[in-house]
Amino acid sequence: MQCPYCSYDDSAVLESRVVTDSSSMRRRRQCSKCAKRFTTYERVEGVDLTVVKKNGESQPFDREKIRKGLMKATWKRPISLEDIEQLIEEVERKLRLRETNEIKSWEIGKLVMNRLRKIDPVSYLLFASVYRDFQTIHDFEQEIRMLKAEGVKIQNENNKTVQKKSSKSSKSNTSSKKQSIVPGQRVHDVSQRTFGVKHAI
Fold it and tell me: Are 43 and 24 in contact, with CB atoms under 8 Å apart?
């Protein structure tokens, strides 16, 4: 396996594990020359998918094209290679579950953007600007407004969820406190404290 850093052809496998959906094998490798580590994925090829472009031309589905686009969009962003590979795996799995093996190019772009938006809005914006061919600042502003509106909606939903959990937790604590109090116990505790204070005086 060729090293992505120095292009040396020999590497050692340090760790192997099956990806969550069992569709591929993740291997952590170390280059025998420069000693840098990198990750590779071994997967079974499924039914060939055909991508129909906007101009009507057809071409085989190519994971590498998606990967290159994502690498450019996520450059210097807090997204790992594993995140990118997982995103591509999810998109391809979704495509292969369809009844037809012919996929519109815009369908692939939509699947990628929907998942990238959840991972990192900034990377999503960069990817969308190329995919949707943004021409003016207005295009960016419009997309940012949509992201902000979506972010506010998600934040409100999260706040409601937290409030519900907090309310349930408070009711549960109150109920447990009531059940833990034995009749006369509170009076006994107070009298004990009073008795101790009298002796201290």
Answer: yes
